[in-house]
Inverse folding.
């Protein structure tokens, strides 16, 4: 095999680490197929977003410092999540804007950090993946990926290259699913209305599988679809792109 | 208006159960929001104009004292009386004094959010001056004795049937058996009544969308023309405006107007844009004999120089609430005070205090749609986060949430401990949820499982699996830079 183009550190994200390790392995496969060498720094836990969005700036900064230290020395840092990648690339610099000693390092990490699918297309120049998926899918644009990182066409472009897959867009693909981190447990009734609006929209497409690029949205949407008794399956887009969508979908059992 | 923002959660849940409200709210995403997208698409320079509008407002805020004084000088030259008011109380009293001097018994009112902010109607009524709202939406909610639920469509929560009911109750002279099921019929009836009120009024009060420093003029935009009748027919016109409404030049007005209506309703322009400068002059055919401007601060100057200063760019178009997925589910009354939706979530705590309005900046998923549509690019989610920071610093965050956060942060900053805990918990959880792949209930996760299932983890954590896979290989420590 040729010399790897980039040495990439995988930011696994806490939700992938805890709930859906398959997505992490799918990300590694996709990155390696794109010619990258992939490392997984051991000293990672979370990006700090729960603290940051709860107004706990100090803990957010402590966690951010840990991320900055753990992810030094790589060409790029890639996360299978628009939300965590956005936290590092857009919000870390804002978190350290008044710390002249740390600002530089934080900014350098921010510049090198990407969401997985847009990294594959925009940095690695991947325009097709070698995978097959028989069925119809609909794609939910997670808010942070869409609005902070401009992730919209990239997953659709790669999905279009998958043999057997047909994409049926839902009309409000860009509308928030109502997850919002702690929002969904602080205001469950409002969140319920928001996610129901989405699941209705998703069901109307007739698609068999819901895809998205963020585990937060997916846990929420899959949890609601299951509660409703829907047959729609939910998967992270990386699973399908990597040809690793043969195990149980999110929220599905093994029997 | 007494703030009900503390009850946000209960208000929101009531709104969700209100079938009529839900029916009206469904029109929002299909109506204003869709029209806004079309209007923006039809104007290639729309985004450039948003930048220009933002820059005009920023420049003005940086030099606010200068422009306010210039505005005052020019307005006075044109014959205006300018009254500087520090707070709501002072503004209300100033307006009442003007009314009393003129012996006013009724005042007509154009739509003014500042009048709502200072609860002007209740105050005037209590002092024997009858206020009559002349904007149709405001008129409807005045009859129903409700606050507005939207800053540009105050009666958006009221069904057609609700309007008919209010008219039957209050329009006493009309035949009780008359048909009132079509909007044009209701409009004609309201118009007939309001015509009389316009002619009777002693004083007309309007808000101001803008104050022009260059000319000392005030500007209102309306779709009904009610503002014009309100301000030209009575003996005196009172303009009620907050200090951040000032902009430097007429030229700036033309820039901002191009993004205002497009962002609000998707119109290219509002139907009426009315610029008034001073009272009636000797050779004017009509106009008020007196022209007063009540300039209200009410906490705004305290926002300057803070992380909330950018909020003062707001031009009150309502795009943030039209497009907000939370507002779309609960409407404006749930927010419990004058300003609802994302702009309210930032502005309300500034004006009535974060202790009162603590829920508002928390009731957001930070989806970013509000910032995406804001014509003056106010970073609303960022400022809501700043409010959460203030709450956290002042220990206003609920204790349970605070401790949960602290416990989690303790583990998250100790990767080895975190590995140990998650490595024990997730496989166990996975084993319990193995058959169905999800949980219908889960201890400590009631907020989640009350409305949706919790998907079960796959099994061992990624980091556990990764370690086993790479254990054979040499330690993959990153290369030194």
């Amino acid at each position: 095999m040729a010399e790897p183009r980039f040495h990439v550190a995988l930011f696994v994200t806490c939700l992938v680490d805890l709930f859906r390790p398959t997505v992490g392995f799918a990300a590694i496969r996709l990155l390696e197929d794109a010619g990258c060498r992939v490392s997984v720094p051991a000293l990672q836990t979370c990006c700090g977003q729960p603290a940051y969005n709860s107004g706990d700036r100090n803990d957010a900064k402590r966690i951010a410092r840990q991320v900055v230290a753990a992810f030094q020395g790589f060409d790029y840092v890639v996360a299978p999540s628009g939300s965590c990648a956005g936290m590092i690339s857009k919000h870390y610099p804002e978190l350290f804007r008044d710390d002249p000693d740390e600002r530089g390092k934080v900014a350098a990490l921010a510049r090198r950090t990407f969401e997985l699918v847009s990294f594959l297309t925009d940095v690695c120049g991947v325009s097709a993946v070698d995978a097959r998926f028989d069925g119809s899918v609909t794609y939910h644009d997670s808010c942070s990926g869409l609005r902070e990182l401009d992730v919209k066409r990239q997953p659709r472009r790669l999905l279009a290259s998958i043999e057997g897959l047909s994409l049926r867009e839902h009309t409000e693909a860009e509308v928030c699913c109502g997850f919002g981190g702690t929002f969904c447990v602080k205001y469950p009734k409002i969140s319920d209305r928001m996610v129901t609006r989405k699941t209705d929209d998703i069901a109307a497409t007739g698609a068999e599988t819901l895809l998205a690029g963020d585990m937060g949205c997916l846990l929420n949407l899959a949890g609601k679809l299951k509660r409703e008794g829907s047959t729609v399956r939910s998967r992270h887009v990386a699973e399908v792109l990597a040809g690793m969508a043969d195990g149980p979908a999110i929220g599905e059992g093994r029997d | 208006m007494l703030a009900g923002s503390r009850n946000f959660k209960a208000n929101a849940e009531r709104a969700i159960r209100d079938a009529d409200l839900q029916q009206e709210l469904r029109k929002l995403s299909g109506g204003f929001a869709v029209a806004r997208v079309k209007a923006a698409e039809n104007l290639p320079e729309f985004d450039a104009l948003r930048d220009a509008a933002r820059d005009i407002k920023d420049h003005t805020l940086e030099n606010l004292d200068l422009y306010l004084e210039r505005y005052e000088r020019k307005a006075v030259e044109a014959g205006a009386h300018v009254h500087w008011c520090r707070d709501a109380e002072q503004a209300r009293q100033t307006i009442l004094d003007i009314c009393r001097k003129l012996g006013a018994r009724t005042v007509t009112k154009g739509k003014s959010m500042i009048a709502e902010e200072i609860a002007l109607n209740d105050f005037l009524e209590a002092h024997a001056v009858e206020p009559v709202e002349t904007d149709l939406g405001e008129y409807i909610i005045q009859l129903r004795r409700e606050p507005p639920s939207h800053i540009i469509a105050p009666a958006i929560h009221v069904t057609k049937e609700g309007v008919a009911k209010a008219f039957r109750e209050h329009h006493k002279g009309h035949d009780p058996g008359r048909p009132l099921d079509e909007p044009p019929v209701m409009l004609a009836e309201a118009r007939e009544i309001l015509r009389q009120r316009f002619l009777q009024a002693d004083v007309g009060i309007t808000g101001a969308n803008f104050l022009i420093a260059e000319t000392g003029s005030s500007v209102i935009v309306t779709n009904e023309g009610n503002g014009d009748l309100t301000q030209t027919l009575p003996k005196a016109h009172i303009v009620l405006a907050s200090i951040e409404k000032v902009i430097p030049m007429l030229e700036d007005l033309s820039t901002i107007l191009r993004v205002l209506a497009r962002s609000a309703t998707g119109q290219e322009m509002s139907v009426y844009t009315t610029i008034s400068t001073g009272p009636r002059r000797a050779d004017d055919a009509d106009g008020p004999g007196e022209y007063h401007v009540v300039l209200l601060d009410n906490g705004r100057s305290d926002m300057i120089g803070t992380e909330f200063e950018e909020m003062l760019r707001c031009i009150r178009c309502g795009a943030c609430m039209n497009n907000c997925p939370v507002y779309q589910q609960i409407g404006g009354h749930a927010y419990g005070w004058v300003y609802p939706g994302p702009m309210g979530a930032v502005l309300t705590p500034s004006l009535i205090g974060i202790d009162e309005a603590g829920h508002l900046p928390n009731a957001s998923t930070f989806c970013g749609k509000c910032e995406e549509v804001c014509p003056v690019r106010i970073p609303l989610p960022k400022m809501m986060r700043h409010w959460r920071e203030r709450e956290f610093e002042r220990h206003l965050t609920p204790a349970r949430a605070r401790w949960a956060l602290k416990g989690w942060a303790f583990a998250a900053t100790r990767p080895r401990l975190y590995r140990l805990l998650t490595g024990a918990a997730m496989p166990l959880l996975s084993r319990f949820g193995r058959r169905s792949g999800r949980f219908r209930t889960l201890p400590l996760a009631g907020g989640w499982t009350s409305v949706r299932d919790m998907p079960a983890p796959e099994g061992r954590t990624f980091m556990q699996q990764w370690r086993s896979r790479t254990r054979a290989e040499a330690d993959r420590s990153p290369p030194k830079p």
About this structure: The longest strand of chain B covers residues 236-242.
